[in-house]
Amino acid sequence: MYIIGNAFASANCRQTEYRIGEDCCPTCPAGMYVKQHCTEFTGTSCTPCTEGTYQDNINGREQCYSCTNCNAGVGLKVKKVCTSTSDALCENLDGYFCIDYNRGGCIAAQRHTVCSPGQYISQRGTADKDTECLQCTDGTYSDGTSSSCKPHTICESVGLKQIQPGSNSTDSECREHDDNTGLVPGIIPGLILVMLAIISAIILTVGRKKISGKC
């Protein structure tokens, strides 16, 4: 704490003085505040700003300003720390963009938009601009994390069978052709022919034995 010389008798306050009632007192320097106003016999008593407060100019205030809190909960972080003579400056966290500035710092931020499935990222978010999303066109899809939409797979073009058509957020579902489906109708007649051949052979064998026994 120290004393600034008396200016009590002045009628019109100068730039380096402040008015108290009808009289003037010398101002305190930046980084300090008025502990006790001057009197007719004493000068202004000034004391340094406490931690977490600041005063960025000569002043006649009885307290310092509170430092700005760069709150991570609202998307902000410290760009410049607070000192006794200057306030803190904030900037937006990654994944956020600034929506309000003051004296070279960000005072309000908003989280970047997350594109939904069926949309693609047409413009990625920056420190001062939100992410831009656009809808996928027919025949394409995206899960919302890509910078473009992908065309649906045409199953037949890769030798597969489509079991589920694609949507704007998912690809077509394909599987291999079931080759056994074409064989089933042909197996049954073949088995019948084999069985008939076996039965015919048995009949012929039995007939021959009977003829041989008679002889």
From TrEMBL:
Coiled-coil annotated residue ranges, if any: none
Keyword flag Transmembrane helix: yes
Domain of life: Eukaryota
SUPFAM superfamilies linked: TNF receptor-like
Keyword entries, A-Z: Disulfide bond, Membrane, Receptor, Transmembrane, Transmembrane helix
Annotated disulfide bonds: C49-C64
GO biological process: defense response to Gram-negative bacterium; defense response to Gram-positive bacterium; negative regulation of alpha-beta T cell proliferation; positive regulation of cytokine production involved in immune response; positive regulation of T cell migration
Domain TNFR-Cys: 48-90
TNFR-Cys repeat residues: 48-90
Gene Ontology CC, one term: external side of plasma membrane
Regions that span the bilayer: 183-206
Protein name according to UniProt: Tumor necrosis factor receptor superfamily member 14
Organism of origin: Merluccius polli (Benguela hake)
